Amino acid sequence: MIxxxxxxxxxxxxxxxxxxxxILLAVTYAYFYEGGDPNxxxxxxxxxxxxERHEPDITPYHRFTIDKSEFDGKFWCDKAPAVSMLATIxxxxxxxxxxxxxxxxxxxxxxxxxxxxxxxVISAASGVIASIFVRRSxxxxxxxxxxxxxLTAGYALGTLAxxxxxxxxxxxxxxxxxxASFYFVVKTRQATLDGEASEENGPARLAxxxxxxxxxxxxxxxxxxxxxCQGLYxxxxxxxxxxxxxxxxxxxxxxxxxxxxxSAFLWWAFGSPFSLPYSHMAEPIFLAHVSTGVxxxxxxxxxxxxxxxxxRYRGIFFFCPFLICTLVxxxxxxxxxxxxAELALCAAQIFAYVFFCxxxxxxxxxxxxxxxxxxxxxxxxxxPIVWFARSKAGLRWTLLSLxxxxxxxLACTATRIELPEGDPWRANPxxxxxxxxxxxxxxxxxxxxIYSLDPRGDASYNLGSLMGLxxxxxxxxxxxxWLAAYVPSGFxxxxxxRSA
Length: 500
What we know:
Strand content: under 5%
Number of domains: 1
Low-confidence stretches: none
Distance between the termini: 39 Å
Number of strands: 4
Largest sheet: 2 strands, antiparallel
Helix content: 55-70%
Oligomer: single chain
């Protein structure tokens, strides 16, 4: 009887040790509060309206954001509504807690806690979930546990997944759903090819895929491109009429609820289930752009391609050199001759989102760190790297590229995510703003606040700064947590290697 609690504690400790990477990622994302910006504001205002006013418009709060639509004399959130709808759950819960405990929800402390908690529940959790499924996919494709951990950490900390897991945007939430659906669709297709009738390709799994696909499309509309890629990949497993109808029927059943809820919201707000928020943009400059092509999406442009990948302004290979390994990884994957169908799926998803991002009028994401519109597709940039990193030379280059990526992403997240717009050929916000800010000994410099029209000095923070630490010293507690989690086991592994 005495040993039973000890055994339970050991099991819990063993489980925590195995999950330490994901626990640390959750702590890391929670460590930063980025303050406000128009994108977060419009989503938060829709959440507030749904919970408190039971209305779909944000008219009472519209003056605090330029990201809005205008229709029928009212103002509306101009984003896909799924993130705001999901946020109603923690928002309503906090309202109950405030009333029960007598907290003043309009106080400065509670305002910041409210947005921070919603970001944790929606975006930080999405970052962790995406990382879990990236690791599962890497293991599925033959990565060793250590290599899978390394590449997962590279995804979570060395790409735009890091900063966008700390703000209330839709990109990382979409990435989590797509990373999960990718893993499940690969398993489902494999079970179908093996001729097995199991949970992997049963009705429940197909309905789950449909639900993920429906939900992600109502989170970020362009992800429909990636959903199409995954759907075609699954249908290619068995092209006979009956299996195709079965896949379509069950996945449609799963997608039914999120799509119907989304359509009902559009009907409620704009009088039609097909009237998207982007088609009613309030700002004239935004409206002019979305009126061209398909809601502002045209053929890829030279400036969009250069700016999104190579420029110092927003280039993802500049901000995240780790992702240069994607190109070599794809080459190594092709040379291996392995998993051709999955190679085609990864390449198609990368190409589809590159096509979208480089052709979108706001390819730079407005105020952004890197080309934020690529965030939903980043899991598929990381997966091919496993073929490159399996060799010693490839692993060495992967590590060399990962270190600066993590440093850059940490610097941006700790300082300011919403980098200003500029000349895509000449602007260098990483050096001109991020590194210059750190050189002055400053950190968390975003002054925008969703609750105020005027800049505020307390708009952003990290948990270290709340402890009274200043400048880069405020990051030391986070570094200490990571070292405490990994140094002891690393030392033990080193001793074993020496003794062997």
